[in-house]
Amino acid sequence: MSPFLRDEMGFATLSEGMVMGASRLGKVFAVLILSLVLGESPLARAGIASSVPGLAWEVECIEIEKGSPPRTCFANIYIRQEIERMLPVRLASIFEKIHAFSASVGVDLPLEVTLSSKGGDVDGALAAGRLLRKERVTISVPNDDECLSACVFLLMAGVQRMVTGKVAIHRPYSIETSGTPAQLTTVRRALSAKLTAYATEMNVPTRFVDEMMNVPSDTPRYLRAAELFAFGIREIDPVEDELTSIAEARVLKISHAELIARRTRARAQCAGGLSPNPFVAAAQMKVGRCYLRLIGLLID
Fold first, then answer.
1. DSSP structural state of residue 83
2. Bridge partner list, 113
3. 233 Rama sector, left if φ>0, alpha if ψ -120 to 50, beta otherwise
């Protein structure tokens, strides 16, 4: 992909080759930002992007004040492929390039991953999931997309999640075509133990693995968003939620206990008119004026 500028949108895109020279890029990045006026605020964007079949990524930075370094950047990774053993290696390469870009412009990048996969190699999915959790990514399965079979292990890895597409589970099957009942039982128990350990790492209740192991491989079970919530795959990882709420309490200069009390009141009083999808409802709640006002983050 060659560098290009689209003057009509004020959007600058750098090729993957340019970001590899991130040390030369440095703060010169700001010079590439073009002006685009929206309302009363100047808004400019710049970024990088690259793709290979089934795996694409982009970084977009937004500048509010003309001529200053970008204030907000977002990194998006799109996994639209069968999961294979090399996926963790390919993802690691992408993260390395994104972090190089982040360092070159001096901006931390929230990482978002979009999933659309029918599944694939379980070990590849577990290794990729551990990498995604290390990077503390937000994961989404959008409308018209699906996350089936081994893809669910990637979904579990998100510290924040948004699901409006299809999710299905089934028991992973062995690629072996022979074996005694005793041997296959041993293999199944080992697989179950491996998946249970992974669920524990991801702070997902192990009953989710129990349910998965009881779904025949040839009859996937599609899960509604509410069922995912019931299994503990919620909009935010519990540890991430704790970290976020502690930071929020610090910003508000109140105790963590007081913040929890405010959250409880807000959830009770601001629940009207929310989406029946609990992932969407959780997002609506946290940006709603009612919730923000009761928490203390919004003063009318």
1. B
2. 77, 139
3. beta
pTM for the predicted model, two decimal places: 0.81
Strands (E), 125-239: 138-141, 146-148, 160-163, 166-169, 221-223
Cβ(187)–Cβ(144) under 8 Å?
A: no
Amino acid of residue 33: I
> In sequence order, which residues have a C-beta less than 8 Å from that of residue 267 and are 6 or more positions away?
285, 291
Q: Estimate the crossing angle of helix 181-201 against helix 122-134, to 10 degrees.
A: 10
pLDDT along the chain (300 residues), means of 10: 26 30 26 24 48 81 59 84 95 91 81 95 97 97 96 98 97 73 84 96 96 94 96 95 94 95 93 92 91 86
Tell me the β-bridge partners of 56: 51, 78
In this predicted structure, what is the pLDDT of residue 104? 82
Kindly compute the dihedral angle of the four CA atoms of residues 237, 238, 239, 245, in this order, to the nearest 10 degrees.
110
Judged on CB neighbours under 10 Å (0-12, 13-18, 19+), 46 is buried
Task: Name all domains of the chain by residue range, CATH numbers in brackets.
Answer: 110-234 (3.90.226.10), 240-295 (no CATH)
The owner of tokens 């069922």 is 227
- Phi then psi dihedrals of residue 46, to 5 deg: -150, 160
The helix (run of H) or strand (run of E) holding residue 39 is: none
Residue 101, pLDDT score? 83
H or E segment to which residue 4 belongs: strand 4-6
